[in-house]
Amino acid sequence: MSANAGEMPVSGRASLSLGYAHPQARAYAPWSAEEGRSAPPIIPAARSRWDSWGDLANPDHVLARPFDVILASLLIVGFLPMFIIVAIAIWIDDPGPILFAQRRVGRNGRCFPCFKFRSMQVDAEAQLAGILKEHPELRAQWERDHKLPADPRVTRVGRILRVTSLDELPQLFNVLRGEMSIVGPRPIVASEVPRYGRYIHHYYAVRPGLTGLWQVSGRSSVSYRRRIAADIKYARARTLTFDAMILAATIPAVATGRGSC
C-alpha cells in the first residue's frame, strides 16, 4: 500500500456489491493520539443519507442497539458449550490466561479492550520483537499487514481457533458493552489509524463489528488497501439490507476459513 494513504481511491471492488449510492459523510478531524493514552473526547459522528429503509438503517436508531443486544445475547447462550470447550482446550494446550484483551479503536475514536480467546503463546508480545529483529523480511510484512504468515507464536489450538474464527467469539461481550456491533468494520489498533488517511472519519462513523464487509471478502487474503476501501464502502452505504447480506455471507466465509491466518 502506498504510504500516502490520504490519496487512496475508494473505488476498489468488494465481494458484496449492492449497487447503492455512496453519499459523502460529513468529515471531521481524525484522532491522532498515541497508543496507551486515555480515550479521547467524543467526536461528533459522521452522518450520511440512507436508502428506502430510512431512519431504521441509522446506527443511532432506537432499534439498532436492541437488535445488537438481543442477537449477541442469543449467540452467547447458544455458544455457551463452545465457550467452555474452547477454554479447556486453550488451558490444556498452553496453560495461561484464556482470554486476551487488546486495545482497539472504536466509534468516534474511542479506545476499548477488544476481547478474544488467546490463540498465541503467553509471551507472544516479547517474542514478536525478537522475530522481527532476526527476520527483516517479516518486519516489512508486519508493517504492511500487521500479520505474519505462519506466525510461530500461534499455538496448536490457536490455529484451529483462527481458521474457524472461534477466537473472536468473546467479542460478543464487546457488543453487549456497546463497544462493538454485530456488523461493521473490523476493529483496528491505534497504529493503523494513519493508514486510513483522510478517510478515517468513515471508520469512526460506525461501531466496529464482529463481522463485516472485509471479513466476508477474503480477510487476510485481501490487501490492506482493499480492506480500507471495504470499510469506506460499508460506512457510506450501510443499510439493514447491507447488514443482512453481510451476515448471510459470514456463514460460508467462516465455514471455508477463506483468508484466515
Helix content: 25-40%
Low-pLDDT regions: 1-15, 17-57
Shape: globular
Sheet of most strands: 2 strands, antiparallel
Number of helices: 9
Largest sheet strand order: 1-2
How much of the sequence lies in strands comes to: 5-15%
Estimate the mean pLDDT confidence. 77
How far is the first residue's CA from the last residue's CA?
20 Å
Instruction: Give the topology string: H per helix, E per strand.
Output: HHEEHHHHEHEHH
Output the structural class. Answer: mainly alpha
* Total strands: 4
Q: What is the rounded Rg?
A: 18 Å
Structure notes:
This protein is mainly alpha-helical and 261 residues long. 39% of the residues lie in helices and 8% in strands. It has helices spanning 64-78, 80-93, 124-134, 136-145, 156-164, 171-176, 200-204, 224-237, 240-256, and strands at 99-105, 111-117, 181-183, 209-211. The strands form two sheets. It has a two-stranded antiparallel ribbon.
